[in-house]
Structure formats: C-alpha cells, structure tokens
## 1
Amino acid sequence: MIKKKTVNIFVMIILLAAVSYIVVFSIFNEFMNRNKEAHIFEELTGSSSDQVKYINQILEFQYVPLELMSDYIGNRGDFSLEIYADVIKAFMDANEITVMHYVDLNGVCYNEIGEKTADVCNKSYYKAIVSGEKKNVIEYVSPLENGDEPRAVFAVPIYKNDDINGVLIAEKRLHFLDKALLSEAFDGNDCIFITDCDGNFIAVNSKSKKLFSHPNFFGSYTDNEIADAKKTMIKQHLANGEGGQLKINGENTMFLAYTPLNIDDWMLFSMIDEEAAFEKYDIHQQNMRTAVMRTTAVFLLVIAYVVGVNMHHNAKIKKESERLRLQVERNQKITDELKVSVYDYNLLTGEFKINDNFKSIFGFDLPSKISLEEMRKKETKFNVSEFLSKIEHMRKTKETVYFEAPTPLGDCKYKWMRIMVTPFFNDAGELVSTYGVVSDITEIRENTDKALEHLPGGVHKCQLSEPMHLEYANEGVAKLLGYTKQEFDSYVGDVYVRVIYEEDIPVFADFVNNLSKAPSVATCKYRMVCKDGSLIHVTDTMESVLDDNGIMHGYSTIIDITDIVKQNEQLQETAKLDAHTELPNKNACEELITDELLDEPTCFVMLDLNNLKLVNDTKGHAVGDRMIKSFADIVRSAVPKEHFVGRFGGDEFIIIAKNVDNVLVKSWLIEMRDKAAEFNKNESEYSLRCAYGYSFADVNDKLTMKQLLEKADSDMYECKRAQKKARAEKMRVQ
C-alpha cells in the first residue's frame, strides 16, 4: 500500500512537473514573442547612445588645431588673414580645411586674401561665439546642389587681451565621420547615419550608403511608408533635440531609433531591417527555448521555475557581457584611430588605470595600474604637478579642463600630449575621481611649427611667473642665431637669457618683469649672441596671458633688425658731418662740450677764419665755401688723426686734444700758419689767416669742457684784437 501510494505521489509529482513545465514554457514563449520588438528597439537605442559618446569625442578633437591657430593669430594682434597667407595655406592643407575666414565683431567675413565674402551677423554660430555663450560651435552647411559632400563650419573665438576680438571659422568635409559609424549591434546589418534637423544626411555608414540614394532622409520615404504625422513628429523631436523610436512600414519594414548628438541640431539614427532583426532575435529566442527544454520535467514546479529563471538570468548576463565586449572593442578601435590613451584616476586611492595604447603612442611604458606617487618617484615624465593643479582648478569650477605638455624622448626629441581631465562627483558633490584621454598632438604642433617657419624671425613662449623660464622656442629662433633646433634646445634648455648679450640682460629682465604684473603687450630691443659669437639686434614683441591656474605666460615674436640698426648708425654718423669740410659739424662738437669734470689732461683750441664774411659779400658764397674747405684741410693736416678737429660755426673751428703740452700745440699752430702762407702765394681770390686761442686743464684743475671753451674763446678774441691793432699800426706807419 505504501509503495503504491509513493508511486502515485511520484507519478503525480512527475505529472505536475510536466504540466508546470508546459505551462511555464508556453508563458515564456508568449512573453518572448510579445517583447520581440521592444528588445529590438532597446538594442538599437543602446547602440545609438554608445555611438553618440564617441562621435562627440571625435568632433571635439577637430577644434584642437583651430584653437591653436586662433591663439597664434590673437597673440600676433593683427587679424587680417592675408598677412598670414603662407601660414594659413600650410595650416589648411595639414588639417584638410577647405575654407577659412576671419569674422570681425560686425559679422563681416574676410577670406585669406583679405576679401569681404559675406555677412554672417545673423548666423547662430557667430552669435553664440561673440556673446560668449559657447567657446566653440559646429554647424552643418546645407549643400548647394545634389551630390555635394557634407560639410560643416567649425567656429572658435579669437581673443585679444582676454576679450573676444573676432571669430575664426573653418569649413571641413565630414567624410571622416563615415568611418566612425560602426555597425555592430546586429552583426553589421544595421544602418547608422547622422542628419540635421531637416533630415539632410551628414554622415552615413557603408550599409546606409547602399540603402539611401536620396540626400535627405525624409525624401527617401513615401507617405505610405512614413505618414506625414510621423514625419512631423520626428522633425519636432529633431528640432527639440529629443530622441525617439519608430517602426517604418514599406517594401521592407524597418525599426528606427534616433538619439540627439548635442552638437548643433544633429541627430544619430540607428535602423535595422525587420527580417535581419528577427533572424538574430529568433536565434537568440531558440537558444533560450533549448536552454529551457534541457531542464527535466521530473522536477517540481518550484525547481523547474528556479532553473528556468536562473537560465534566463544567465542568458541576460551573457548578453550584457557580449554587449560590454563589443563596446570595449569599439572603444579600442576608436582610441586607436584617434591616437589617444584612456585613463581613470581615483582620488580616494590615488591609483591610475591606463589602457594599453599609452606605450604605442608615447614611446614609454606605464603599468595598467600605478599610483600618482609611484609615477613621481619613477620619473615617468608625466607632468604630475600640472595634473594636480588642474584637479584643484576642477574642484572649484566643476568643469572639464585640458592642458598640454611636452614629453621628452631623449636626443632633444619631444612628443606633445594633450590631457583632458573630466571630473566625477559623488551624490554628496565630492570630487572622487577623474577620467579622460591623453592624446598625441605632436603632428598638430609640428604642422603649426612648419607653418610658423614662413614667418620672419622666430617665436617663443616663456613662463613669466616665478620661476621665469623658457617653455618653447621654434626653429626660427635657432636659425636667427645660427643653431639647429637640436643644438639650440641642448644649449639653452629653459634658460633663455643664455643667448642674450650680457649687457642687455637687465633690459630684458625689466621687460618681462613689467609684463608679468598684468596681461598686456609690449616691445623690447636687445642684442642676442649667435653661435659664432657675433651679435644681432632684435625686437621682441611679447603678449602676457594669465592661465586658469594664475600663471602668467609670455608669447613672443622676435625679428632681426641688425641691418636697420646699422643703417641708422650710418645715418647718424653722416648727420654729424659738415657738408663743406667733411669735418664733424656743430652738433657733433656740442656733444663733446659738457659740464662733466675732465678725467685726463686736455687742451681746447679755438680757431677763427678771418675775412670770411668779406669774401662771401664781394666774391660770392661759392668762393667762401672753397675758402672754408681750404682752411679745414690745412687744420686737419696739421693736427694728428687721434685728436678731434671740428667745424664749430660759420668761420670757427675747434681742436680737442688729450695728453698734449703747450709746445706741441704751438707747433701745430706754426705749421698751420706756414701752410696757409704757402697756400696764399698761389691763391688770388682770398688769403687764409686766422685768430686763435687755447686753454689747458689738468685733472687736478677740476674743470669742464665748457669752461675750457670759454677760456679758449676769450683768448681767441684777445688774439683778434691784437691782430686788428697790428694791422692798424702798420697802415698808420705806411
């Protein structure tokens, strides 16, 4: 009896388990069928969200070279693009830019040759930049005709003294976005594309190119496929920046999900054919059925239910793991193409996590996990101090920040990295970690350097805040001094004053000290020492700019003005010569006659040519000029070259001699008298005679040159009176 009852219970349990299995399997199958479309839309929406993050990141990197060019133009202070024609051409070629314009504060566009091309004062990107609402803007350019390649305007501000002084806009083709649209949600069968709010295609993946021939998404479907009401709904969503889902009925039924890009009014669409979507889903559903069917019908309903739920949960985990795996692969593909390394820094543990790209990009290895303190101790070349200062700035502003740093590789070679630092705050508003990307911008910097080589002179950047040091100098600076770039970097390092002439270092120090006090622009002249030891004269025009961390930097352009200085010196020397005698003129003489006490024995001689006015009045000024020239030649020939001889006035000449005695000076005067007498024998129009006076000063006399002049002048007038008295006496006797 017991055995029979046990058998009956066992049979009942088996039957109950079988019935429960059938009921549960039927319910499960119906649930999967009913939720088929919801799961497809969920897959599309998840794929769109992942794509949006990386498309935004790709577009963000398009601003990097444009911001460098904007800083370059702003630092120069002249906003006419035609003066940078060679630079602009090299820059546009290097960055695949088709059109570049400068827009002034009135909204007027000027191209690279200075022509006015358009008025964009009503353009949204212009208003957003000039008002300070946005730091950079991207806006789709509507095609001029069918078949035009999608283009966009990238706009950034140009600053002068921290104020917006204009807008730099660059037009680029958007073909690079096509490669970033990765079809992986449905084994490569999904269509992914980007449109503007009007439905114009901006970027499409290869699957979409085969599907759409019309340049507009809405134009690709009839009213039977997408009703006007649904088209209006989608357009409203696009205009409001909202995402959504839609099933399109037509020759091929399509599932559609769209997500805003938050750039201009762009929207990213993910679309899959119903047949392809159901095929993948049916395979997944069949796998689920097989998993459930493998459970035994002999277990109790509770056991069967637990096993079924457990299998369903495991499948969901597997699906999520697969999605995460695809996302990791997609992340890796994009970071490889963009040449970036992703990092995560936890402030609580002080630990860095860095992906595998770092070594391949920057040439030195870091562990996948390393503390900030270990990085500092091991001298991994990562700018730890700059990174920490950016984190402190981020605590206050709660905004993503960037900074650039050179990474030395040895042999005077560098790689430039741009580091993005994005904050992550907990629910209490505390900064607990940061994450971001480290990108290689060496090529961008090199392209900019190549463009700068078209400029005369060179450019350099200094940190003006203490400790003052050179941060960067281009090849133009090295060429000015006869160095190669490697030789200059090796010799100068960060000590710029090593190539400034020693006597001019205080002038440069005052120059940068004044600029370090407040943002401003100034120019300084100083001399630099070339590799061969020679000196050149330069002008240094520097603009000081305060960064987010309160550090003042100076951006300089230096120009070689050596030839100009020499020409000016020659002109100054020529300006000090008397035209008739080629002796120093009155201005040159007066420069020597000062109130300073004499520091060595000096003689001052004053000479006055007699009868010059009479000759000018009776014979003419041409004869008078010859008379002056003849007398000047006699004086200059009698006095040794090391002593100064100059024409002090119309008929007055002076001699300034150092370390001479009375006997020597009198011998000069006698020689002049004898040469004049010899000259007069052969000259019929005039005779050369002069009155003279002279004075001596010893260092112990405490006299000035002006006092010597007064004494010599007084002595000369005594001589003149004596000569007149002698002539009068001679005439009386005759």
## 2
Amino acid sequence: MRLRQWLTAIRQQWQFIIYVFIGVLLRPSELAWNRQLLFFAYFLLLFFTINFLLRRTDNKNRTENKQTALWGYLMLFSFIFILITRLIPFYQFGEAPLGYDTGFYLRNFYVNDSSFLSSSAYYLNLVPLHIFGLSPLHAISFIYVISQLLIAGGLYILFRSTKTKDSSALAAIAIFLFSISALQFYAYWWMLGQQMIATAFLLITIALLFRHPLLAIFTGAAGFLFHLPTFGLFALSFFVFSLINIVYCFARKKEINSYLIKLFIIGACLSIIIIVFKGALLWQYFNEYIIEHKGLYNTFPFWEIVRFKGAFLSVSTLSVTSIVLLPFTVYGLLKPSLWKLAFNTDNVSRSFIIFLYVSFFILLPLVIFPVIYQQRFMIILDLFIIIFATPVLYLLISRFANDKIIKIIMFLFLACAFYNVGAMAWKKQPQIPPEELQEIKSLSMTAESDAFIIATNSFYTPWIYGFGGRKSYGPGWGPDPWGYDSWMEFWRGSDEEAKMEMINSTFASPTYFFIGAKQQQGFPFQIFIEKNEKFINISPHVWKFTPSL
C-alpha cells in the first residue's frame, strides 16, 4: 500500500522531481561548494515561490494589465540601452574595440574579388554602405550594431506573431532580458558579425512560420546565406516539427491540411535555394566535418580545437551568466500550460509552442556534447532561455501589477540589471590594446609594398591580417606558410641556424615580425630575434627582418 502511495506521490510531483534534478545538473561546477549550495537553495526557493504565487492565478483572478504605456516605455528604454551599451566600446577605444573577427571581415572585404563579395550575403550588405561613403571598417561596425537591434526586434516579432492581447507585454520583457544578458553582450564583444545577423533572421523566420508562413522562405533563405551553422539549427527544428505534424495527421487519420502543405512548400523552396547557392560548401562541410570528424571538435588536432569549438566562452559560463534566470526558464519548460495563461487566451498556437520546445531540445545536445561549433550554439540557447523565462516573469509581474512594494522591488531590480551590464560595457577592454593596433596600422603606410607581416601568435593573426595592409601570415589561420611542427621549431627550438633557414627559405622580401604584449614572453624565438643583427626593432612590438643584410 505504501509503495502505491509513493508511486502516486511521484506521479503527482514529477515536475518538482525533474526540476530538482535539473537544478543539480545546472549548478556552476567551477564555483566553490558553498556557492553551489547557495545556487541550489536559490533554485529550490524560486520553485516554491513561483508555484505558490501562480497556484491560484488564472485569467479571472489575475490582476488586469492596464499598464500598456509602462510596457511600451520598458521596451523603448531597453532598445536605447542596447544601443548605448553597444556603442560604449567604440566611444572608449576607437574604431576597432571588439573581437578579432573584425580583422577577418575587413581583410575579406578588401582583398577578395567581386565574385566573392556577391556570393557572400554578409559582405554583399556592406557594399551599399561603402558606395555611400562609409569605409569598410565603419560599414562593418554599423551593420554589427544594427544586428543587435535586429535581434531585439526579432524577439518582438516572435512574441507578437501569436496575435494575442498580452503579446506586446511579453515582447517587452523578452527584449529587456536580452538587453541585460551578460552572455549576449559577450557575444557582441567577440564580434560575431555573421552569426548575429543570422540570429535575428532565425527569430523572425520562426515568427513568420506562424503568422505568414510563405514569407519565411525569404527570411530563411537570407539566414542560410548569412550563416549556415545558425540556420542548421533551424533546418533541424523545421524537419522535426514537420515530422511531428505529419505523424499527428496520420495518427488522427486527418487529411493533410493547408498549413502542412505550406510547410512542404517552405522546405522545398529553402532546400533548392541552399543547394543552388551553398551546395558545394555544404558538401565540403559534410565530408570534412561529418564523415571525417563525426561532427565532433575533439577529433581535430589539439591546436585546432579552440577554433572548431567556436572560439567563444566556455559552456560552463552559461549557467553563471544566466544564474538568475535559469529557475524561471526551467519552470517555464516544465509548465507549458503557462503559455496560454500568460497570453491570456486559449487560442495561442499549439504549433508555436511545439516549435519552441523542439528548437530548445535540439539546442541542448549541441551545447552539452563536444560538437563542432558548440560554444556558438550556446549564444542561441541563451536566447531560448530568455524566451522560456518570459511567460513566468510576466505572470508574476501581472499578478501583483498594482502592489506598491512589488513595484519598488521591480524598479530596484531594473536599476541593478541595467547598471550591471552598463558597467560591464564601460569596463570591458578591447581584445587588442589600441596602441598595438596603431602599430599594426602604421605598417600599412610605412612597410614596403612587397613586404610580409608575420604574427608570431595566433591571437594577433586576424589583426595583422585585417589592418597590416600587406601580405600577412600567422599561426593557425588563413594561408599559414608553416605547419604546426615548423612553428614549434621556430618558437621553442634551440637551433638558431634552423630558424634562420626557415625564414630565408620562406620570405625573400622585407618581413615584419609582430610580438604582442598579450602573448607569452621569454620564448627562445624572442631571444633569437632580439640578438640577431638581421632584425631591427622599429617599434615596441615590431621587428624588421631584411634578407639582404
């Protein structure tokens, strides 16, 4: 009898049991045990608090939302805050204060021919700005800042696509959460240009699937052309979602409806567009990444792992940066019925909710397991964490919308959240010190036209590549003239004659070696360069090698 009672209790409390289990998995393992315990206590406390506050909440006893103007002000202020925090690094540190991909984007715009530019959607959208007088670097920066507003706009369109009464309020909360997300600011700081624009198109495309389905063909095609990995997620989600719809029709013995036909049209059109424009690249990725490396970054040589992981923050930082929001997200995931309650209607599209769940649970293994591009998928997962937390937060806010104490607490929370990200934007240093960047840029004016510029550390390769203005090389990126073994011999080898032979046999013109302050100092190659008479120190971090001496 007791066993049956236990089983009954477990069936009734399955959501709480899963919630606790997820809380254990999500504890930030890099924190000390006492802080992990505090996180878990916070996680449990929020479950009971949310459950208690929402237990008796329904469409009848919920405080009526009469704060339409307030949601509008929150949304407007969030957009302004996004713009300010994204512009602060430029105000603080000049024209290149973000990640090293800046160098790659700039170099690709300058050196590649028109056929390349026309085949790349990202560079194609820079061309009009360049024609109207913006330099390539300013055009890249302008589009990048706009991409942040587009992501916020994508969240707005996503929630508004439900066509429900309270959707604008939920959109305001989602945009606010995006504006105060530390991980989203880090993603911006790393200068992930193509991914940021594709992420905006991803949100808009999902929204269009449930409002104007056939228009999703155009935004989906644009997203695929901007960034294949981001829309690889959409392709998987779309396939699983379509399969669920097909199975549902057959299981219920229903005729194929018009919406399913539209899904077939969307899938067919996007497949044709991708094959035409990206077919060769997809086939190359499939052979190299899936067939040869099984889709896992840990199958690559160890010096390439960072690049194939996505060259971003570690996955463990996700639970740290989202620590306040995670309990709301997990609660929202475990209570899908809250979506109808939050939207204040029973007519919210079931398909809309299913697609969000499908995307979330496809993202999870992409972030948990060592798949190629793992760390970049974390950025999109953070957006879905925001999306699933939004209905829970909205219900809590609307439950006590007229309570003065709650209003004061909400105001203090808003102020602290904005201050936290604002201070982060103000204090965040550029990836390359401005004085070092200026040294590199000066070489574009002073170095001989046939000169080579060499980065002696992979961190500086993109900066040399983009701002040096000459033929540029560096370890691990682009047309690297030396393999890993040769670089190791150059960096650490004791045979100075072998080093000189490597340089003479590779570079026949004047060659400038850049040794930045951010790379480890005291390597044998640095001592070799400083002592060898063929190298002349022309600035704090630049040494000139002249073969004729």
## 3
Amino acid sequence: MNIPFVKDKLLSLVILISVLIGVSLAFATWNINFWPTDTEDYYIEAARNLPNLKYISQMHESLDQTRVVWLHGKEGYILTASWMQRLMNDVTTLRPFVVVNIIAVVLSAILIFLIIRNYWGLKVGFICWFLFATSFWPYIYILFAKHQSLGLCFFLVAVGLLHLSDRKWGKGFLVLSGLSLCFSIYTSTASSLYLLYYIGALIWQVYTAQHKEGDPEFFFSFLFAGFLSLVGFSLAFIYFNYPNIVYNVKSYLEYVEISGQYNHFFYNQPVLQQWISTYPMNNVRGGWLWVFKYFFLIMPVVFPVFLLCHIYLIRKCIQQRSQRLWFGTVAILGLGWSSPILAQLRGVAQYGANYFPSFVGIIVVIGYSIFVYLSLYDPQSLKDSKSYWTTKIVGTSILIFHVILNNYVFLSDIYPTRMVTTFLSNAIEKLGVQEIYTYRRHPQRKNVVDYLNPGLVKKLKFIAINHIYEPTQGYILVPPITGNSIYIAATSDYNDFDQDIFLNELVHKGNMNDYAVASFKTLAASRIWPQEEEILSYRYLILNQLSADIMEKGKVWLLDVQKLRQDMKKNFPPQEDFWLVSNEIKNIGTKRLVYIYKGNQINIRSPGTLKKLATRIYKVGQPKDSLRAFVYRVDTEQTVWVPYNEHFVSELVEAGEITNDSNGQIVQFNFTQPLPLSPGPYYFVIYRTGKRSDQDFYRIYKNQVAILDY
C-alpha cells in the first residue's frame, strides 16, 4: 500500500510531533472542570439537544430567549461538538469540546506545514509549523473550550482544498473549499477576519495555475474559481440558516450589532467611571496601543520577529529593485496586517480571542521573509556564505528561546491556573476530610467551590461561615480575594472581598502563607487569562493596573483552622476597623481595596428634581484633589446602570472644603443642570479625581446620603 506521507520524513515528523502534543494535552486536560465558560452556559445544552432538531437553525429556538443570541455564528462548533458528545457518550462535561479543540489545533498545525510548504518549500513550511505548534496562543482556546480553534481549522482546510483545485476533479475542490470557508465563519464569529486571507490564497492559486498552463485569461479564471467557491459557501450557508433563512440572517446581524453596542464596559459603567471618563462607556477602546501591547504579550518572540521581517523585506526591496519582490512584499505585508486592521475597523471588543486570526497572517509574513532570504542566493553560495551560518545560528537561537519562553508561560501560568479546581480537588482529597468551611456569599465561590471535581463535591459537605474564627477545627477554603478576576469581570466592583474583618487583617499583614496547607494560582492570578476579557485587558494593558499584589490575592487558599486560632491575638484587627464596620464608614480613594465605598441605590417613590446630593464625609491626611458624584439610572433596554444623561456628573468638591474630624461634615455635590427624577431606582457613587493613597484619602458615612431639592 502506497502511503505518501511515509516517504516524506519531514511530514511524518510534523504529524508525529503534532499528534503527540495533542495526545499529551488530552491526558493533561481529561479532568478539566468548568469556569464556568460560555461553553457551559450556552453550548453544552445546545449540542446535547441538537440531535433532536430537524434543522440545525432550530437550535436558536430551543433555548430561552435571553440566551439565544449567543449561538449565532457558532453553529458549526456546536454541530461538531454534538458529534463528539455522541462519540464519547458524554453530554455533561467539557471533554467533548476540549477534544474537538485539540483535534482542531493538531490538524491546523499540520495544515500550516502543508500549505506553507506548497507556497515556499519544506524548510519554510517546517519553521512556520514549528512557530505555530510551540506558541502558547492556540492552546489557550483548547483550555478555554472556545470556538476559535475549530474556526481556524476549517479556514485552513478551505485553503488546503484550493491547492488541490489544479488536479483532477479540481473544480469540485473549489466548491468544497467555499463550503469549508462558510463552516469556518459559522463556527467562530472571529473567522470573518480570515476572508482577505482566503481571497489572497484564491488569487495566488488561480495565478499559479494560469502561469503553468500559459493561459493569460486570469480575470475570467479568477471569477470562475470565485463563483465555484461561492457555490460551496452558499450550500453551507443555506444548511446553517434553513428553513427561515432571512430571519436567521437578520438575527445574526442583530447579534453582531448588539455585541458592538453592549460590551462589558457598557454593563459596568458606575464602577469603571473611576478610571475612564469616556461617555458613552461602550465606546472605550485601547486602539492600536492595545493591539501592539497585546501582541507583544501573547507572541513574545513571534511578534518582534514579525516586526523585524518588515525591516528586512523593505531593505531587500530597495536593494534588489525588483517589481516582483516589491509586489509580493506589499501583498504579503498587507495580508499580514489585514486581520487586526479589519478588527479595528469593525470595532470588535479588544480581547484575545477576537484577534486570534491575526496569528496566521503574522506567521505567513515570517515564512515569506525566510523564503525571500533563501531565494536571493543559489544553494551552494548560500552554504559557503559566513552570513548564512551566522543567520542560521541566530535563527536557531531565536527558535530555542521561543520554545523555552512559551513553554514557561504555558506551564507556569496558562495551564495550572486553568486547571486549578482539579489541583485543588486533589489536595482536598489527600486531606481525607468530609467537610470544608467556606464563605456562602463570596462572589467567586461558584467558580471555585462549586466546580471542584464532581465526585468530590458529592461526598464533601460545605459549611458556611462569616469569618475565619467561626470553626474550631478543620480547613477553610478561601476563593480569590481580588475583584480583578475574569470570572466576574463584567459585574465586578474590582475591590477585594472584605466581608470578613479577620481575613482582611490576615491578608493585610501578609500572613496567609503561615496558615495555608495548600494554595494555588487561579485565573485571577494570571497575566494571560485576563486578556480574554475586555475590561481587565484594557485596565492591565492601557491603564497599567496589574500588580503583584493583585496576582497574590488571585490565589485560592486552604487554611488550617487550628493554626489560625492559635495566633488569633497576633492577627487581631485594630479597633479602628471595627469602628468603620459598625458605623458603615467606607473609604474613597485608598490603595488598600477593603471597606471601599461602592455607592448607594435609592428608590424614588414620587416624581421630583435632583439639584444636590448631600452626604457626611471626612478626609484622612491631606489629600489635594477633589471629589465628584455620579448619577445612574436603569437602561430602558438592558437591566443595567447607565448615566442619567450628559449632565450626570456633579461639580467638584475640593479637598480643602472637607474636614479632618472623624465625625465628618455634610458635603453637598451640586449639579449644573437639575435632574428630573421619575419614580424608580437610582444609583449614586462618589469618586476622587486624584491617585489612590493610603495616607491621604476620604471616608464617607454610607448610610447618610440624601437627595436635596427633590
């Protein structure tokens, strides 16, 4: 039996290593638990119900209407995962989705080698495969159980099928190519950014085929090839939208519009107003600065090399003065930048998954640069050249550094923080306990406590506590303390969990490790995972608000109760903290993120007018900035807080006008335009205008807030 790839040793090596990586990941993630992610919230149920539907588009009707929009543009992912669910006989866990993503990444790696090899030869294909297979970016979406991996795979299959279009039954491959492209777009909403890549590949395929055959009619050949591809695309398009094609397309477009108008910034405006002055909030973007900073973070070696390739290619174009080289360079660089440019033009939310299609274009630019370097010299003179050997040594060193750095980030950050509930479950099982103490109302309880290994949860009793000294023996599970967490980013107040005055003091003194039998970094302690959520990514990359303190508080802890109680006096809070808690006094503008003023919700019972907001405030130290108040109402379309109107910000109250007396004084915040208030809920919050400080800040009596001239 003649098996072509067996004769191709390099291809065999590529397949072997890619498969080994996939198998290793399958074993390493077999007991992966939920975050919960979108996959658990929306996709598992849809995939489970899919075999009962007559048409695939009916999945949009099978879930309640508040969740239906999230399925548009992911139909191919849900369909593929549904097949895997039945194959694995597993309709409840993440495993079928993770396995689908693993297979997608393995196939994508092999296809990158085959496609680049077809363009620029074995060496270039191997290097491009190597860069992809050893970068941590693709593996994030395996652990995330998201659709980007499969969207990439279907796109690469579409390009691979183009390469077969000059063979027997070539026209049929063009139809299949278009069909696979449509599957890509209906698998991941980010896949629309591959369209220019695909058009470029189609142009090149037609051009090379015409060049071989000596046929000058490129334009008509391209139109014909495009038409056949469009036929395949249309078949898949009808499949995904039939029988209510117009309605489903309209719903998809509405989803795209909604995702642009109602991003995470929009849903959390009162909290974000302390850092961001943009109004309306849903227009907040980091722009190209975010793109460059994110690419340097997510591709720490590949992206700098990509930028250096620009310098090399432009230099060679100037030196060679070749129109062919200029044309090829401009075309490849244009395609390399097309995905982030399109993302910017479309105004997509700036988090990692939406920019993943850029990875392929960046690798292609690097591959083309290597091809240009190799093609400018004949093989013998190249091998005899000192610069060639220098380049080879430098290039090999870069690849080695790339592997070391990407493996370090993956193994020290991405993988362990994603698998934290599995590791935590193993630690609890080793303790051999039947009960664990934890907080009932901790905002991140669901993401950590409720998603331990299912077998452990069934036999473990969770006992609710209010503070760490309630139990007399056993172990306390403390979820991440920081509010800077991807788990809850869209609704977080971004302050620390401060409902336990004794835990607060333990954290403040830095003594948590003294009483921990185990601790693990979670997603909240990661540098990489927060980039998959737009608010955190903006705050970390644009506002530079990521700190070692946040990452330390992002751990999950198992504390020994007996050790805690032995040192109770040592870690007892100061009387001032008890006084603050008992009098409902909150801090404004401190670096220490406990007892922070989060605002007041006031229900208005009869119509009136807001001219002033009065509250009791005092200052600590000598702050030199100001305070201002903000007014929010409930949005008419979404149940979230939005600015009352363009006059929702009060005039400034200077620090010099505020007393240092801890009894406080009544401070009035004046509004330049009176705000008519109809009956209903309103939200009021006060922020300082200067930087946070633990020496110079403000305090407010939370329960003493009143509307004047109402």
